Write the structure tokens for this entry.
Amino acid sequence: MATATQQKALGAFYTDEPVAQHLVRWAVRNASDTVLDPSSGGGVFLDAAIGRLRALGNKIPVVWGIDLAPGATDPVRVSANNLKVLHRDFFTIRPGEIPDFSAIVGNPPFVRYQTFNGAARDRALDCARDAGVELPRLSSSWAPFLVHATRFLKIGGRLGMVVPAELGHAQYAKGVLAYLLRQFSRVSVVMFRESLFPELSEETYLLQCDGYGTPCKWLSVATSQNILQAEDAADRGLPAEIEAITSGKTRLAHYRVSLRARKLYEGLSEMQGIVRFGEKADIGIGYVTGCNDYFHLTERERKDWRIPKRYLRRVILSLAACDGVVLRDQDWTRLRDLGEKAFLLHVPAEDGHTFTEGIAAYLKHGKHPAVHNRFKCRVRKQWYAVPHVRRGDALLSYMSGQIPRLVENRAGLFSPNTLHVVRFASKASAKSFIAGWHSSLTRLSCEMEGHALGGGMLKLEPTEAGRVTIPLPQAGEAAQLVKQIDQLFRAGDSEKATELIDRQILRKRFALSAAECQLLQSAAEELREWRLHK
């Protein structure tokens, strides 16, 4: 059995028996079916396939497994069940080396691009390219794995896989999904409120593709509480618009909300005065230090090391520290006085020969725990010179447990990549966007355009944040609205702030009814509750 470290390196997070049983029941339909699990691991899919085929009347099932880790599948079980298990890298096997199968089931390795590299990555990307899918080098391993797996199917065959939710939101996944829709006549995606892999910081779906060799005529998205309640979920799924999904206009996760809410959301997104965030704002990640604990200092540390103020920048590391929607000097002062890390050590590379005694001592201290040898530090011209330290007009949550925050950066603070740095064409624009951000429409948009992580966190990448829909107030109203909602937030009444913005912007300017505002709010809350179950 692989250790936890080996599991992570191989992406070997083994599937529970109910998940394997569900996919195999769906994929294996006749006694004559042949089955392959191309990442067989502990053999849970192999066992399920053997049991299913025998129940259908096949006394000598044809079931194959492939796994890179020797001994992953019990040799005794392999022998007793006449299994065929190859201990090879799946990406070294080409069509024709092994038979084609009626059904391919399993759980692809979840290896992220950071560790999916070198020759292994090159082989995988070559396999996808041979199938006609060009994937970027930042793709995770599951993407070429899915593409390659289809090439071992018989015409009319079925593919049933556990896949990461990246299938529905990652940029590189669009090519994979488009490929599957070209190859299978029917594609269904099943999403779950309860996590299939609680130990993974990743939401997962079930992918069920039927009718290999015929372009897609039916794409559906289904939801289920958990795997035990997922029987026939794919057949009960909502039909999805293939062109809207493949173009990126609509995401798979959008089908979690009601048709009424989705149509209202889509209609509002086309209205003049309601804009995508990225159309009017520059959204980027904050600076990357390479070692936040070292490069960020408290007031006490600053004094103890005698760091001159010219080598310091005032920073905020989390918006949880800001009570309102306007970040003021007194907010930062309070954090500093509470002993928070409120300074960034910012030594320009060209100042290397003019160090004060305090700076020299602190940089020497950084070499003792080998901060200078960390990747982001050692690739710089000077290891201590943190680049791209930019000040934004506003700061935006990157990951949120509840609702993503957008705050006006009136204090002029800097931030690391724990937050996004937002720049506008004018201060008036900043206030308009901050006011509209607190509407029910934008709250729903964050849930629909961002993506959930394990543990219930909502993550907004810069491109996702750029897709968030924001209703803007009438000219001249923004400053007063921001002042009012800032007061409400500081008083701990964020719900009243949303009611105010809905009333003044959605209802007054865009003529939504109270019921339509409630529909947006309910849909946002439904999606929030959904991800918090993860």
About this structure: The mean pLDDT is 89.
